[in-house]
């Protein structure tokens, strides 16, 4: 007898570059305001406002190369980010041990219904309505750290229709990857399957149906997504 009373929901799993196997996702943590220039463009003060986190849902990750323009918004923004995938976890992970838990990295996008996020901010409500919507996290295949190491530096760039809109460097993150893992592990039990979107550099902006987004993270990979 099937032990579940409904059909089992499909597991979200990230393709792994050069492999038939996939990486099953447990939780999706996202870091906000992790690049000073982006903090400033969003009206914050990087000296006073430290990074923070929010969450998306595992099934918001999408690997099809298409981003359907979402309902209930007329101001949808791209945020170019590096995804960090954990192969193990724990609590109170020291910064110097944090990278031992990383399986790999991928280029991804934290697509945002900016108008709905703005209303939520104004009303001091949670951000899910602006962040955790259908297919809101287009993601490239994971590249194992065993192949590329742990990138600390490298150009992060997004082109929309061939024109550069976002530029930054991994070394400009306020919380580096080991620090974000360590920080999250103080508040949550991290585990294999957890992924972290590490924040976006400045230059976020709107997309329209038909736009083509090309993410490039030096040393990590590319992601090509069409807005449909
Ligand atoms: Mn973001």
Tags for this model:
228 residues; alpha+beta; Fumarylacetoacetate hydrolase, domain 2; 6-stranded mixed sheet; 5-stranded mixed sheet; 5 helices; 33% strand; globular; binds manganese (II) ion
Structural notes for this entry:
The protein has 228 residues and is α+β, with helices and mostly antiparallel strands. Helices cover 15% and strands 33% of the residues. Strands 4-3-15-8-9-12 form a six-stranded mixed β-sheet. A hairpin with a 2-residue loop joins strand 13 and strand 14. The site of manganese (II) ion (MN) has 6 residues, from loops.
Summarize the model shown:
The chain is 15% helix and 33% strand. The chain has 228 residues and is of the alpha+beta class. The chain starts with 12 loop residues before the first strand and ends with a strand.
- How many beta-strand runs? 18
The general outline is globular
Q: Mean of the pLDDT scores? A: 96
Write the CATH homologous superfamily: Fumarylacetoacetase-like, C-terminal domain
| Tally of contiguous helical segments | 5
Topology of this structure?
Layout: E1 13-15, E2 22-24, E3 28-32, H1 36-41, E4 52-56, E5 61-62, E6 66-67, E7 76-78, E8 80-86, E9 102-109, E10 112-113, H2 114-122, H3 128-131, E11 137-138, E12 143-144, H4 145-148, E13 155-160, E14 163-169, H5 177-187, E15 195-197, E16 205-206, E17 212-217, E18 221-227
């Amino acid at each position: 007898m099937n032990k579940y009373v409904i059909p089992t929901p499909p597991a979200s799993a990230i393709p792994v570059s050069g492999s038939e196997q996939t990486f099953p996702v447990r939780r999706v943590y996202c870091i906000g305001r992790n690049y000073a220039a982006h903090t400033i463009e969003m009206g914050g003060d990087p000296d006073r406002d430290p990074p923070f986190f929010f969450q998306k849902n595992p099934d918001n990750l999408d690997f099809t190369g298409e981003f359907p323009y979402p309902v209930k918004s007329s101001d949808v923004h791209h945020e170019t980010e590096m995804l960090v995938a954990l192969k193990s976890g724990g609590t109170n992970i020291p910064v110097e041990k944090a990278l031992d838990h990383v399986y790999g990295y991928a280029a991804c996008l934290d697509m945002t219904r900016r108008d709905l996020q703005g209303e939520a901010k104004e009303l001091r409500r949670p951000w899910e309505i602006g962040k955790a919507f259908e297919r809101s996290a287009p993601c490239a295949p994971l590249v194992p750290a065993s192949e590329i190491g742990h990138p600390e530096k490298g150009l992060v760039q997004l082109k929309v229709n061939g024109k550069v809109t976002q530029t930054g460097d991994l070394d400009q993150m306020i919380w580096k990857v080991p620090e974000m893992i360590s920080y999250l592990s103080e508040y949550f039990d991290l585990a294999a399957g957890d992924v972290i979107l590490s924040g976006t550099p400045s230059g976020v902006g709107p997309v329209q149906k038909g736009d083509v987004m090309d993410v490039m993270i030096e040393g990590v990979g590319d992601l090509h997504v069409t807005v449909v």
